[in-house]
Design goal:
InterPro entries: Glyco_trans_1 (IPR001296), Glyco_trans_4-like_N (IPR028098), NTP_transf_5 (IPR039498). The chain is 47% helix and 13% strand. The chain is an alpha/beta fold. The chain has 4 domains: 9-208, Beta Polymerase, domain 2, CATH 3.30.460.40; 228-318, no CATH class; 346-517 and 696-714, 3-Layer(aba) Sandwich (Rossmann fold); 536-690, Rossmann fold (3-Layer(aba) Sandwich), CATH 3.40.50.2000. The strands form 5 sheets. Strands 12-11-10-13-14-15-16 form a 7-stranded parallel beta sheet, sandwiched between helices. Helix 18 links the parallel strand 15 and strand 16. Helix 13 (274-316) crosses helix 26 (692-714) and helix 19 (548-558) packs parallel to helix 20 (575-586).
Amino acid sequence: MRTPALLDMVSATQLAHALTAHVARDLGVRSISVKGPVLAEQKLRSPRTSTDADVLVDPDRVEELVEALKRRGWEERFVADVPRILDNHARTLSHSDWPCDIDVHHGFLGFLAPEREVFEALWERRRTMLIAGRPVTCADPVANTAMLALHCLRELHVPRNRAELEELAVAWSGERGDLDVEDLLGLAARTGSVETLSPFLSRIGVDSTLSPFDRAGFAAWTLHTASVEAGRAAAWLAAIADARWRERPRLLAKAILPPAIEYRLEHPEIGPSRLDFTRAVLQRGVNGIRALPLASVQIAQARRLQITASSQRRTDSEPAEAAPRRYGNRTTPSSTSAKGEDRMPKSVAIIGTRGYPSYYGGFETAVRRLAPYLAERGWDVTVYGRDGSTKDDDAGIDRRVTTRVTRGVESKSLSTLTYGLTACVDAVRRKPDVALVMNVANGFWLPLLRGRGIPTAVNVDGIEWDRAKWGRLAKNVFKSGAKATALFGDELIYDAVEIARRWKQDFKRDGTFIPYGGDDPGVLPPVEGFPHRGYILVVARFVPENTIVEFLNAAETLGDRWPVVIVGSSGYGGELDEHARRLASDKENVSWLGHVSDDRKLFSLWQHAGAYFHGHSVGGTNPALVQAMSCGAPTVARDTVYNREVLEDTAVFAQPDADSIIQAITELMEDSARQEQLSAEAYERGRSRYSWEVVCAGYEAVLDAQIAKRKERGR
């Protein structure tokens, strides 16, 4: 008896494409081979080995093709009946003699138009090429661009997907007659993928008006892409929240303890014993619990998009005179409905930061992203700030955001309190629909807002009374402000799970977990004079709890071997600024840049650092750390519960003393493979868990909820 020849993966996937095309042709079923060797042939990505053959099939005839392949020995993989954020778009078949799978698609994720319309649009662009010596129908380069981009964007936390998206963008940067921007936009409009493709369109310099074909579908897409890590937890959470009360116990039980037969079929890697199954389910539970906080934020974002969808459908059904008015690329609601009822935009006052746009710290970074986000969605946004603290000539300023400057005492101990008071007094006079208040020191003034009927959401920041930079009086003020916040704040926002635990323990208050976000800057050139992976970086405000003293002492030694770049200052002058100045003067290898407000320069410093030291010890999720992760900085962090919550195992941890810092940084600087590993892992975690889209949507959901509660109380 002859032993069948074993197929290598490259040959197998090519033959699988050819086989599927042959079977489909015999049946008279229209099919299009997607991704795979076609992309390399069309020079949209480099050749690589795939583990499956993807084919998009006439949606009405998928069953025929699947059954025909089954008759040839292929078997359909089991798919568990569990909640999913994105519907199954393909049926996967495997064969005992083949190392690859065949994915028979009836749709392609990211195209929000009906599957039939999408298939017809792609079928019109069909071409024929030889794969394994057989004619195979495939799509043209423009259609394959859309599909590859959507495939990468769906799971952008995967390093390979990021690399392929960059490679695709490079292909579009050249002069190719078969790649036309207007053609791509036309296909995107027809297939309902303008908004899902928008990150890629932005990368190739295309500014497109964003108008989701299907807002509910885009809600699911956003929910999935925001964090694949929390995707399954978010799906279960959404299903349980949407179910009737009597159905929730059953769903909850299935989420906690899945049926053994189904779970084993879905996860054949689980060992045969009962203990193996128990361990797998326990690990599943641990992963689910870890993902729940982020999943909750994602659900809030999806709810917002779904509410927007309902509002859009109502607007579409109104008479023409009540239709939205378009200004540039933004649609603004008409101020009056067909019945003459006022439809004023919601208004929010943001209190407790240095203003907009400001580059001072974490609160200011959040406001730079949140204020334009809310304005784009029709909110009337007012940001209170301080004179001289903003960049009014900032190229990225959003003129729809109103800024108001009130008076205060400019000193380390009194500025937050005094500016917060005058801002609250001004807000009381103007009476916005809701106030977003930053910092518990402003908790003393919350009764003013409550007395005026203005609901509040308060970002409590960190545990300020634990910080070494404050004296006893200041610590008591912050602790008292926290008590006032717990008493008078309508909703509390925590940027870290550990912060939420402390507030629950100390003040018996629950709230909403919303972390900070980070921007993916793409690939940036190194800052002149600082070569890739050739220098040590620290970015921090000069305060004791940021381990600046210990790092500057360590830099005395580290600067003998490598360049050390110091970004930051105290903002008020003092001993730490003088130490940094003296160090930079005495050591040629040490550069003190002070405060860097140029994001592109700062992001490049993070991206190309050989070791980034993060010494923050209190304060929850630190915005600088999240941004460093999104830039792929190989990180040495002070070992704290907050830093471990954010980084998990994507960094090296050190104790707060010079010797420990020197040892950790030296080991990392001497290990280039470890540098690149930590860079990739930090980037993946940063993009999958800390997305500005999710963060801003979480804030909007909280603000909307407070307005709704106020209206409910007024009935």
